[in-house]
Design brief:
The complex is a heterodimer. Helices cover 63% and strands 7% of the residues of chain A. By secondary structure, chain A is mainly alpha-helical. Chain A has a domain at 214-369. In chain A, the strands form 4 sheets. A two-stranded antiparallel sheet of chain A has the order 1-2. In chain A, helix 5 (97-114) packs antiparallel against helix 6 (144-169). The two termini of chain A are 21 Å apart. By secondary structure, chain B is α/β, with parallel strands linked by helices. Chain B has 2 domains: 2-126 and 250-280, Response regulator (Rossmann fold, 3-Layer(aba) Sandwich), CATH 3.40.50; 128-248, Rossmann fold. Chain B has helices at residues 2-18, 34-49, 63-75, 88-100, 112-115, 128-141, 157-169, 183-194, 206-219, 232-239, 251-267, 289-295; strands at residues 21-26, 52-57, 80-84, 105-108, 123-125, 147-151, 172-176, 200-203, 224-228, 245-248, 277-278, 282-285. In chain B, the strands form 2 sheets. In chain B, strands 2-1-3-4-5-11 form a 6-stranded parallel beta sheet, with helices on both faces. In chain B, strand 8 (200-203), helix 9 (206-219) and strand 9 (224-228) form a beta-alpha-beta unit. In chain B, helix 3 runs parallel beside helix 4, helix 6 (128-141) runs parallel beside helix 7 (157-169) and helix 8 (183-194) crosses helix 9 (206-219). Classes of the chains: A mainly alpha, B alpha/beta.
């Protein structure tokens, strides 16, 4: 080959490129390709058996519930992947994310369940040598915001501590955060065992239970603050009384909506009854055809075509139903808990059900109520990080710290500060993950977040972050979370498949996307 | 003062020399509400047969400590020992030594497979495969034809046995739900939509049970849903009729039966049932849910 024609010059950088070559030299192009491929696979995997379609969006994976569930898994993973990814870009690892999630969840759940106190242990010689405890402060009822704040104090401290140890000692972050992985998991267990119990018990359980559904506490007129489910289960007389006080226009809109729902439910019920009734006839038809009994075949066929069933009658709307819907529509009195554990975009999903009639489940009821709030939190974090990483000096510092540490130091980049603050940010992301989880499911235990650190690193690497540092984008990490989340769950849509194969599939996806990334990165780096 | 203590000690010794003495050593750590029920079962049985009863556990949860406790208890030459057997490797030698010292030993809870080889008289526990079979048998009788088994730890033998036994009764596909609360409903919904001809679901753990039920509710399906083990949420689901039944291993029997069997063995010239006693599966459904809830943590 003649080298003189392929030799690149500095002036090539200023050459105008076509939009296509610009597009394919974006570093995220590889992950985005894999993501689209996986979406296609998800769609085709999940097309109901017996239906043929070339449109992947007809698959069950893209129905309202599929979107709701998938985005929850993806966004929770995405939150910690951003923390892990930024740290990798700066050239360090955090293996303690999973344990940090467990610790933050347990800490927050215990504060919500039992309250918060500051206790000083001291050695007492009165009546023999023993340890006494002095309670300085005890808050028995801590608000969700307070619990999050106290937990953040702990987790950010641990993030700071790990970062400081790493930059001061020069030890590899791999080993220090591996220590953090064991230490925090152990600390979680020990704290649960020591503090998670009633006053009359001596040892705590490793699961925090009986936390009320805080995000669903509403102010019911005439009954004060209570959990939605309990309010809906009030005696019927109380519900009727509540219904009487609802403004008339609200009653009208609820009634219209309920009548629609009951109509849909009745239709769905009729359809199910017909299916159930026809099914044995179809079986009989197949049998008759097999044995060649023509008389029977024609008779059964006639029966099937004339099969009728008394259509189910729609329920009438009562005051009790209206009161229940009204309680559902009340705003939560705990906005912080609702922000982390509640739903978003409910009006859109409502509209998709009535009048659009897409968000409808088998029984004719509304399918998904909205998206999980963690989706919004993920996007906010991603947006802020995108601005910081791509548009600010801090972003340049992060890239240069990971790209060439000595050069960065020589140019006056505060690399130690950059690293310590990214360790704290990683702990922050883990805490946000735990917050979403605690307020969604109202429980926490010592095993929560297990292996999440590896999932987060995998998502970041799939999204084009290079493990040696200095290379990667927020958009890539976001796409990586999509890929990992979809690959983790999509497999279960294949009918009759044994679930254990999903790890094989996941492994293949990780290796395939890492290979694609590497290929594209080499091409881009070579084309400067 | 010394005299009083001595007198008490002597009288205690002479008393215990007459009464039959049975020691129970378990791997409970004093935090799980499971084990006090076993302990109470043992105490009640001892009272009924007129024996003395001692209950020993290690708060550390360390099986090395438990082996030491077994050896220490055996050194006091009791008339019988009841031992839970979570790890035959760690506890096997201590049990063999006790058997060699002439103490009748019965294993309970876990350890069915190695009970006989260590020289124990018998085992009282829930054979998980049998429990799965019984769950499947009942699901089939209630009209189930094809099922999914929701399993949170696909490598845990006790859990795969539950699915395996169930699968023997009706064709079953396993779904690995994982323990992640976000993944459980996602994968359950995926599995249920991928296999629309499924009309039954078994969830082999209480937290999986509530997650899977959420997916079933979201999808608007009416499938036969049954679960394993008890929790307040599962009891609520049974009371509301969404979950057909849950399988209880009835740990009170694991405390009660060994004491009775040891008493009969000691006083009846080696009287012994011909096989292990399965303490479970016991069914908890709508008919007995409220009475089981009332006794939760005491006898259930």
């Amino acid at each position: 080959m003649n080298t003189s024609t392929t030799q690149r010059k500095e002036a090539d950088r200023h050459q105008k490129k076509s939009w296509l070559s610009k597009l394919i030299s974006r570093p995220e192009i590889g992950p985005i390709g894999v993501m689209l491929l996986l979406f296609g696979m998800l769609g085709y995997f999940s097309i109901p058996a017996g239906e043929m379609s070339w449109n992947p969006f007809t698959g069950e994976g893209f129905n309202a519930l599929g979107i709701r569930n998938f985005l929850r898994v993806i966004s929770q993973l995405g939150i910690i992947a951003i923390g892990a990814g930024l740290l990798i870009i700066a050239g360090e690892f955090d293996l303690s994310i999973g344990s940090m999630i467990g610790f933050a969840g347990a800490c927050m759940a215990m504060i919500l369940r039992w309250g918060f106190s500051i206790i000083i242990p001291y050695v007492s010689f009165e009546g023999g040598f023993h340890i006494e405890f002095l309670t300085l402060i005890h808050l028995s009822d801590v608000s969700p915001l307070g619990a999050i704040f106290i937990t953040l104090c702990f987790t950010l401290f641990f993030g700071w501590l790990q970062g400081t140890i790493i930059v001061r000692s020069g030890l590899p972050s791999f080993i220090v955060t591996l220590g953090g992985l064991f230490f925090l998991r152990g600390l979680t267990e020990v704290s649960l065992r020591s503090f998670n119990h009633r006053a009359d018990q001596t040892k705590g359980a490793t699961t925090v239970t009986e936390i009320p559904d805080i995000k669903n506490i509403v102010n019911v007129p005439g009954h004060g603050e209570m959990v939605r489910e309990k309010a809906k289960a009030l005696p019927e007389a109380d519900l009727v009384a509540i219904a009487q006080d609802i403004p008339a226009d609200k009653v009208a809109s609820i009634t219209e909506r309920l009548e629609y729902t009951y109509q849909r439910v009745a239709e769905a019920k009729t359809e199910i009854l017909i299916k159930k009734g026809v099914k044995p006839l179809e079986q009989a038809l197949a049998n008759a055809q097999e044995s060649g009994n023509d008389y029977m075949v024609s008779m059964i066929q006639e029966k099937i075509t004339n099969f009728k069933i008394e259509p189910a009658v729609a329920k009438t709307v009562t005051d009790v139903d209206i009161a229940r819907v009204y309680i559902d529509s009340l705003y939560s009195t705990k906005p912080v808990a609702n922000f982390f554990g509640g739903d978003i975009l409910e009006p859109i999903f409502d509209w998709l059900y009535f009048p659009v009639d897409w968000n409808t489940n088998n029984f004719g009821n509304q399918f998904a109520s909205g998206l999980y709030s963690c989706v919004m939190i993920w996007l906010i974090i991603a947006l802020v990080c995108y601005v910081v990483l791509s548009k600010t000096q801090a972003g340049n510092w992060i890239y240069s710290t990971g790209g060439n540490l000595n050069a960065a130091k020589a140019n006056g980049v505060p690399t130690d500060k950059v690293k310590v603050s990214l360790f704290m940010f990683s702990a922050f992301c883990a805490t946000i993950f735990a917050t979403c989880q605690v307020f969604e499911v109202n429980t926490a235990d010592a095993a929560k977040g297990n292996l999440k650190e590896l999932e987060a690193i995998a998502a970041a690497v799939i999204g084009g972050v290079v493990l040696t540092g200095g290379f990667g984008t927020i958009l890539g990490i976001v796409v990586g979370a999509f890929i990992f989340g979809v690959a983790k769950e999509a497999f279960f849509y294949i009918p009759g498949i044994d679930g254990s194969f999903y790890r094989v599939f996941l492994g293949l996806v990780i290796i395939a996307s890492a290979l694609t990334n590497e290929n594209i990165r080499k091409r881009i780096m070579g084309s400067i | 003062m010394k005299k009083i203590i001595l007198t008490i000690l002597v009288s205690f010794l002479s008393l215990s020399a007459f009464a039959e003495r049975i020691v129970m050593v378990t791997h409970g750590e004093g935090k799980d509400p499971f084990w006090p029920v076993v302990q109470k079962g043992g105490e009640d049985a001892a009272r009924h047969v007129g024996a003395d009863f001692e209950y020993i556990f290690n708060p550390s949860g360390d099986l090395g400590d438990m082996a030491k406790s077994i050896a220490a208890a055996a050194a006091t030459q009791p008339d019988g020992m009841v031992v839970s057997l979570p790890d035959p490797e760690a506890l096997g030698q201590a049990i063999k030594d006790a058997v060699a010292a002439g103490i009748p030993v019965i294993t309970m809870n876990s350890g069915l497979e190695s009970s006989a080889s260590l020289g124990a008289l018998m085992h009282v526990g829930q054979p998980e495969y049998l429990a799965g079979q019984k769950a499947g048998e009942r699901a089939k009788a209630e009209g189930a034809t094809k099922a999914l088994c929701m399993i949170q730890e696909a490598y845990n033998t006790a859990l795969t046995d539950r699915c395996g036994g169930y699968a023997e009764m009706l064709p079953t596909t396993n779904v690995d739900t994982s323990n992640d609360p976000a993944s459980i409903p996602t994968r359950a919904a995926a599995g249920l939509q991928a296999n629309p001809d499924v009309d039954a679901v078994l969830s082999v753990g209480p937290h999986v049970c509530s997650g899977v039920q959420a997916a079933i509710d979201d999808l608007g399906m009416s499938v036969h849903h049954s679960c394993f083990d008890l929790s307040p949420e599962v009891m609520d689901l049974i009371n509301s009729g969404k979950v057909a039944y849950t399988i209880d291993q009835q740990q009170r029997l694991q405390g009660y039966m060994p004491v009775v069997v040891l008493h009969l063995y000691n006083n009846g010239a080696g009287l012994l049932p011909g096989a292990n006693i399965p303490s479970g599966p016991g069914f908890v459904d709508k008919s007995n849910a409220s009475s089981v809830s009332a006794l939760a943590g005491i006898d259930r």
